[in-house]
Amino acid sequence: MMDRFLGKYSAYLYAILRIVAGLMFAMHGSQKLFGMPGHRPTVHLASLMGVAGVIELVGGLMIAVGLLASCAAFIASGEMAVAYFMSHFPRGFLPILNQGEPAVLYCFLFLYIAAQGSGVWSIDALRRRR
């Protein structure tokens, strides 16, 4: 029943998921690089966290607008896997116990977006129409 109701909107729901996830990820990068939103300390651009901030900001925006979203999401997925294994895994295996849930969720969400592509409501879709 829900498939009949929501199934016809799946392309648009996927686009909303891609846009929201990309914007949220970009905000992680803007916090690292610019200290906002909020008043966070910034990181040095030439550090591992600086590179992570650039991937998060630029990659998140690319995912959100659907510009080469598959490539950007694949890179973002890899960054989140590295973040999990470098920062969270040493504190224990289970993400629920080592505060790694967001990294794991972003990793697999972006892996899905990498496989699915930009979809509707994207710059890539506009470029394909031409």
Characterization of the model:
The structure is a single chain. The longest helix has 25 residues, at 10-34. This protein has one domain (2-129). α2 runs antiparallel to α3 (48-65), α3 packs antiparallel against α4 and α4 runs antiparallel to α6. The protein has helices at 2-6, 10-34, 48-65, 69-88, 95-98, 101-116, 123-129. It contains seven helices and no strands. It has 130 residues and is an all-alpha fold. The mean pLDDT is 96. It starts with a helix and ends with a helix.
Provide a brief overview of the structure.
The chain is mainly alpha-helical and 130 residues long. It has helices at residues 2-6, 10-34, 48-65, 69-88, 95-98, 101-116, 123-129.
Keywords:
130 residues, mainly alpha, 7 helices, 0% strand, globular
Q: Supply Rg.
A: 16 Å
Distance between the termini: 37 Å
Low-confidence stretches: none
Largest sheet data: none
Into how many domains do the coordinates divide?
A: 1
Q: How many strands appear in the DSSP assignment? A: 0
Give the topology string: H per helix, E per strand: HHHHHHH
Roughly what is the average pLDDT, rounded to an integer?
96
What fraction of the residues are assigned to beta strands by DSSP?
under 5%
Number of helices: 7
- Secondary-structure-derived class: mainly alpha
Name the shape in a single word: globular
Report the helical percentage.
Answer: over 70%
Blueprint of the fold:
Layout: H1 2-6, H2 10-34, H3 48-65, H4 69-88, H5 95-98, H6 101-116, H7 123-129
Helix pairs in contact: 2-3, 3-4, 4-6
